[in-house]
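[agent] plan:
  1. take the single chain provided in the ticket
  2. run structure prediction with default settings
  3. attach structure tokens to the ticket
  4. add a short note for the reviewer (M.T.)
[agent] executing step 1
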Amino acid sequence: MVVRQLRLLPDAVLRKKAKRVPAIDKSVHRLIDDMIETMQQANGVGLAAPQIGVLLRVVVLQMPEEEPVAIINPEIVKRSGEREVVEGCLSLPGYSGEIKRSNSVIVKGLDRQGKAIRIRATGLRAQALEHELDHLRGSLYIDHLESEDKLHQIEPETDNRGM
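[agent] step 2 finished; step 3 output follows
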């Protein structure tokens, strides 16, 4: 596993749409392993492939006290409710923003072995899934800000886990 360099705004790759993974092969497994390593090294709860410069529909998540999970070609099939959250991003360090996210989501995709999976999520997991799937469309959380005064610079010593 290799820690890859995180792409930071204004890197153009963060604004591009990721392509579907046509086949799960060794290169996709290597990508997933590198993404997990990179996410953990950066103290994040999620990472999308475009954040390391790879325009493929792959995301990884790791909730506190849980094992990491990879989702290939993920799609949100249902959203419900709405709540206000404070969100940060590994590709936009030093900032957090107040935005609206769904209370719950259902996501479908494939696991590393190519098996169809469905994930029902609430709370932080739902927020992380929406955040990472936004990256696959070339969107960032700052695109959801209602106004610029909802974006805040954060102090470096603050433990604000990014996605």
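[agent] step 4 note for reviewer: The CA atoms of residues 1 and 30 lie 7 Å apart.
[agent] ticket updated
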